[in-house]
Design a protein that fits this description.
Length: about 300
């Protein structure tokens, strides 16, 4: 098949892609990539359904400064077009079986910091001068919509295309029967009171495990929740998570939006959120580390 004849089939291929319910963006990318390749072949009087010709075009794109991502998408477009021609009987066999895509390493995208996210949400805030008399309803509606979009994308990692197609039926807006809902009472001031401190049982439920042997089998269940309730009834009980602390040699290099807030159990260089593990190895020199740690745990051995 010549390049000119293949170019005449692009419009029909786009129709077939629409019939497959491909997104408009995908159809546009595929058609653009295949068209560029076929025009390049036509200018050089080359037959397009050739592995060597396709590889030559891709190599030229990379040598010319195109990103590996761009070259990868355009090669995929040509291969999908050839597969469609093969399925329709317009060429005898797929000319590009086993052709490898250009090696592509997605760029590392740093997540937004808490400050950046707060600043982004602040752009959607409805200020008093806009929410008062004379404010247009569409202004406040757009602000609420934009805030909802940002929060959904941040909390669920949903893709932009998935977000655009999201419908109300896709959302679970029901509150579970055992959910605890807390509402503020604007008419009654809140008074902070420290809870009573005391112990009403022995320490018989505390287990001592080996520090060198296997603590848990791989198949053993691990309960990470504890139930806090009244002594005589479970009415009004609260189910709280038990903390899980990673055991590390030190707290150096533990940075990042989430990692910086994760408490760890360390033997030296604790951060302000870490607990210092005091044992026979660091007992005599732990005074300085204790001043920067959030707390300490003592390991006692016979």
């Amino acid at each position: 098949m010549t390049a000119s004849r293949a170019l005449d089939r692009i419009a029909d291929w786009q129709t077939a892609l629409r019939a497959e319910n491909k997104s408009p963006g995908t159809i546009c990318l595929y058609a653009d990539g295949a068209t560029r390749y076929l025009r390049w072949c036509a200018d050089g009087n080359l037959l397009p359904m050739s592995r060597a010709v396709l590889n030559s075009w891709i190599a030229g794109l990379l040598d010319g400064g195109s990103s590996p991502g761009t070259a990868r998408i355009r090669q995929l477009a040509v291969r999908r077009f050839a597969s469609w021609l093969t399925a329709g009987g317009e060429i005898h066999a797929d000319p590009f079986p086993g052709v490898k895509a250009p090696r592509y390493e997605p760029p590392l995208v740093e997540p937004l910091t808490d400050g950046e996210l707060r600043a982004l949400l602040a752009t959607c805030a409805v200020h008093d001068d806009r929410a008062g008399k004379g404010a247009r309803p569409e202004d406040t509606l757009n602000d609420r919509r934009d805030e909802a979009i940002i929060r959904i994308m941040f909390e669920t990692a949903i893709r932009s295309g998935e977000l655009v197609d999201l419908q109300l039926d896709d959302l679970d807006l029901k509150v579970a029967a055992d959910a605890v809902c807390i509402r503020t009472d604007e008419d009654t001031p809140t008074t902070a009171e420290a809870p009573a401190v005391g112990i009403d049982s022995d320490f018989g439920s505390i287990s001592l495990v080996s520090a060198t042997g296997t603590r848990l089998h791989a198949h053993s269940p691990l309960d990470l929740l504890t139930l806090i309730s009244n002594r005589d009834s479970e009415k009004g009980a609260v189910l709280l998570p038990l903390p899980v602390l990673p055991l590390l040699a030190d707290g150096k290099g533990l940075k990042g939006t989430l990692l910086s807030r994760q408490p760890c159990l360390v033997r030296s260089a604790p951060r302000s959120v870490d607990l210092l593990l005091v044992d026979e190895r660091n007992l005599t020199g732990c005074a300085a580390d204790l001043q920067t740690a959030a707390g300490a745990g003592v390991s006692i051995r016979d």
